Amino acid sequence: MMTSSLLHTPWHMPNSRCAAAFKRGALCVGLALGLSGCFDVHQSLHLNRDGGGSYAVSVAAQGLVGEALAEKRLDLAGLPPPVITRGEHGVVRQTARVRFARLSDLRLPFDVISLRVRGHSFFGLGPAQVELRRTFLLGNARREVAQMTGQSRQSIAQILPARLRGNVYVFAITLPGSVLRASPLTLGGLHIAPSIAGNFWDGHTVSWRVPVRLLLRGSILRFAVEFSAYGRFTNAESLPPGS
Questions:
Q1: Which of 23, 32, 33, 48 is the most exposed place for a label (fewest CB within 10 A)?
Q2: Between 47 and 166, the higher pLDDT residue
Q3: Do residues 55 and 44 make contact, with C-beta atoms less than 8 angstroms apart?
Q4: Structure pTM?
Q5: How much is the mean pLDDT over the chain?
């Protein structure tokens, strides 16, 4: 649950650096906002049967940070301008979404998302067996936060955990067909199993829910899902910005 009580502590991010945060990726924005308030970050990938889909990022906060989100739109990793919405208890959310025909259309600063076709069942006539992987470069994101806030990585690691209790980071993948396997995460000594919801006809959503404070540990997070579905899937991979 988000709270604005931390906004009244004496340790704030300077306004100029807070403004710079609005031009970074979702996690960088979130961690930087964590220096002056509380927030939640949600990233999601929706894959269609033709190999296309959509990618979305969302940052939510309340209190003074929420009001800042209500007044100025973020630049979330170069995605289209986000939509601003208000929810219960004064929570303000910015959500940006981009559609793609292939994963190689995506340009992501701290992610590599890949699709690999492993084969087809029933002698090539059945559904495709596909693996989707996401490599999240946590270390690179934290270095970006340190640069934008003018704080050392050590000081951020010491100060943020107490401020981020109760805040969550969610990554969700919605896939067609059936989920064969979804790998758990191990971060900061905590075993994080994904949740799976849905059905064969409408697709399944696999979600990992991670306490934000744990993102200060480790350098790489790897998410992996294997699924079986009828469709036109080909090997593809997202690319870094500017490529």
A1: 23
A2: 47
A3: yes
A4: 0.74
A5: 75
